[in-house]
Structure prediction request, 318 residues.
Amino acid sequence: VSTQSTGRKELAISLLDFEPRSSEQVPALMRMNQNAKAMEKAIASGDMDLVHTVLVAMEPKERDSGKIREFNNTLKDNPQAKALYTKWCAQTDVQKLHTHYETHDNYRDSALLYVQELDHNTLPEAKLKLLEDIDKLFRKGTISKDNLESQLTLEQVALIKRQEGLNSKVSGITGMNLNETVDLLIQRALFAEAEGLRKEFKLSDRKFWWLKVRALTKARNWSELEKFAKSKKSPIGYKPFVDACLENNNKAEAVKYVEKLPREQQVDSYMDLDMPEKAGEIARLSRGSEELFDRILSQIGPQNTVLRDRINAIRNNS
Prediction:
């Protein structure tokens, strides 16, 4: 590289192509301000530590538009370097990554980066500020009038504000997602508040019924569950009622809803309730009864001969 000192820089650069050791070649290119070529050689070497060294050296230390343009173009032309730089910034200086994204008008990725920070902010005020910033970035980063990401962000803002209003009735509710919020309100028997959220956030009937059935059984509010089941025809059927009661160890309540099921589901549910003879009676009245009886007997097993004989007697009377 001694030719560089005599001012013959191009010859020095050409000679470096014959240097087999990337660990020597790349730093020499960097000393001659041949950063783009140094990056090319570092990537070709497969040595990510060397790529990282070039990135750190190339990264603009001040707002010099020429240097920023060179750096960004290098990243654009080298996906591996871009991925490494992104990972490095995410681990060491997230704000640099925001700057990088926004320099490229990549507002969506910048917004998604803020989304990752939401979990680390427990204070409602901090979350609201972050969400407002996220919304602005999503709006900047789309040309579509139907900006779903922005809409979802605004819904999260609205939810946090509603949770803040509910804190006097239910402590610790702020920061939960919508499903968790509705679930907790129902468990605390705040049915009007849960219904208000259902309407405001346009929860479907099916979704709301699933949430309410599970919340009521977790709260062991059996009377309210029965009242809810009778309020109108269930959009999710009655198997979720049976399953939720069983999950909460109340077979007596589960039985109430089995009769509302189609016969094939009744057979399965009575088996879950350890009522095989009742399952047999339903199977006897059903189409495809042979298959249902086979299913019952397979669950009983060959050892329980007394019970198998009783099921077979029911079967033979069909």
In short: The chain has a mean pLDDT of 80. Residues 307 and 314 are 11 Å apart (CA to CA).
